[in-house]
Amino acid sequence: MVTKVLLGVIIVLIIAYICCGFRIVPQNNEGLVETLGKYSKTVKAGFIFIWPLFQRIRKVPLALQPLEISKYSIITKDNAEITTSLTLNYLVTDSYRYFYNNTDSVESMVQLIRGHLRDIIGRMDLNSALGSTKEINDQLFVATGDLTDIYGIKVVRVNVDELLPSPEIQRAMDKQLTADREKTASIAKAEGEARTIEMTTKAKNDALVATAKANAEAVKTQADADAYRVQKMQDALSKAGEGYFRNQSLDSFNQLAQGPNNLIVVGKDEMTDLGKVPALKKVWDASGKNEE
C-alpha cells in the first residue's frame, strides 16, 4: 500500500515537473535557452519545452522600438553651447549579441549616438548647426548604422528633434535679429524716399521740358506769323505806285501842320519817302487783322 502511494506521488511530481517545462514565446520575440546558466540554443516564437531547474529561457523582443534620448549639451566649433534631444527607432537583429555581448546594449547604443552627434556638431559653427538639422540626421544615421551591429541592434531612424542655444546666446541672437530687422526697415524706408524724390524730380524735369517745348513752339509760331506779315507788307508795297506814296506824303504834311511842332525840313527827294511810313503802318495793321 505504501509503495503504491509513493509511486503515485512520484508520478504526480513527474507530471507536474513536465508541465512546468512548457513555455510560450510570443510573436515578434525569440527565446534564448540556457542550460545550467550557459547558452544552448535560440528558439523562435511558439510553444516550446525546457527542463525546469536545469534550463531557463530569456525572451528578446524583435519588434521595432522607439527611444527618446533626453536633452544634453554640446559645444559647437565656435564654442557656443546648445542643447539637443533625439528620438530614434531600433530593432534587435541578433538576439544572442543583444543579450550576451553587452550588459546593456541599448545604453551602449545611446552613448555611441551621443558621441557621434557631439563629433558632428563639434565640427560646425552655431549658425551652421542650427540650420542643418537634416544634414546632421543623415550624417548621424550613416555613422551609427554599422557600428551598432556589434550589439545586435539596427537603428532604423534617428532624428534630432531640437537644437536650442543657451539662454545667453538666445538673447544675443534675439537682439541681433531685432537689429537686422530695424536695419532692413531703415534701408527700405530710405530706398522708398529716394525713389519718391527721383520720381518727383523726373516729373518736374518733364514738366520743365514740356513747358520749354511749348514756349519754343509758341515763339516759332509767332516768328512765322511776323515773317508772314513782313512778306505780305513787302508784297503790298511793291505793288503800290508812286502816286499812292505822293498822296500819303501830302497827308503826312497835313498832319504835321496841325500839330504843335509843325516845322520840318526835308530834301526834295525825301518828301515822297514820308508817305511810305503811314502806308507801311496801314499795310502792317491790315496783315495783322487778316491773321486774326
TrEMBL record:
Key words, A-Z: Hydrolase, Protease
Gene Ontology terms: cellular component: membrane
Pfam families the record matches: Band_7 (PF01145)
Example GO molecular function: peptidase activity
Protein name (database record): Regulator of protease activity HflC, stomatin/prohibitin superfamily
InterPro entries (UniProt xref): Band7/mec-2_domain, Band_7, Band_7/SPFH_dom_sf, Stomatin_HflK_fam
Gene Ontology biological process: proteolysis
The organism's taxonomic lineage, starting at the top: Bacteria, Bacillati, Bacillota, Bacilli, Lactobacillales
SUPFAM superfamilies linked: Band 7/SPFH domain (SSF117892)
Domain Band as annotated: residue spans: 20-177
